[in-house]
Amino acid sequence: MHSTIDLKLKSSIKSIGCSFNWRVISLGFLVTLMTGCASQSPEISQKVNWPTQEQQLSKLTHYQASGKLAYKDNQQRFGANLNWQTNNQNDHLLLTNFLGQTLIKLDTTPKSVTLIDYKGNEYHGTNAAELVRRLTGINLPIEQMQNWLIGLPTAADTFQLNDQGVVGYLAKQIGPQLWEMHYQEYDFSQHPALPSKMILSQGKQKITLVINEWNLK
């Protein structure tokens, strides 16, 4: 579905894309994120029953995830604080820098999308992935993330369970793009178990997600 973006966005895409300089927050943040991940203690080996896990995940309609995001491609790299909230079919994504300043705020419903950029400019559309791509130049499978973030392979073309009985890998072709998610760590103190480190990739794009806190409502 094509997004219905206002004239202000259409006339300013190039200038916004150029001025949206993620590099000012990138290097130190990325180093902190990666070294922090490397120093985490490994989880005690556990095994879950996938049919039970899948059923429990499918019932999660309200949740919040807080953590870090690191993005890298051929042209840019940056790090951000991540806050994702799902309330039934409504999603809220907030990315902030290390000072707590908003980089992107994205609110989606089944019928509309609202994006607020780091300057406070507000944009509207009907396709979240398209709106983010036009504003930032970054491709993200926003629609699929509601389930992929919690380790539920909804609409994936293929997925594999790891030795612990949870999803370790999934893949989906979206148009010409093949998206792959590798789940590297899970938090088994949560019920159901939830991912704590994931790597989402497509071509030269690599997005590392580290979830420090889950809040299940």
UniProtKB/TrEMBL annotation:
It comes from the Bacteria. InterPro entries: LolA/LolB/LppX, OM_lipoprot_LolB. Signal peptide: none annotated. Keywords: Cell outer membrane, Chaperone, Lipoprotein, Membrane, Palmitate, Protein transport, Signal, Transport. The keyword Metal-binding does not apply. GO terms for biological process: lipoprotein localization to outer membrane; protein transport. It holds the Pfam family LolB. The keyword Ribonucleoprotein does not apply. Coiled coil: none annotated. It is a lipid-anchor. GO terms for cellular component: cell outer membrane. It is found in: Cell outer membrane. Belongs to the LolB family. Monomer. Plays a critical role in the incorporation of lipoproteins in the outer membrane after they are released by the LolA protein. This is Outer-membrane lipoprotein LolB. It comes from Photobacterium damselae subsp. damselae CIP 102761.
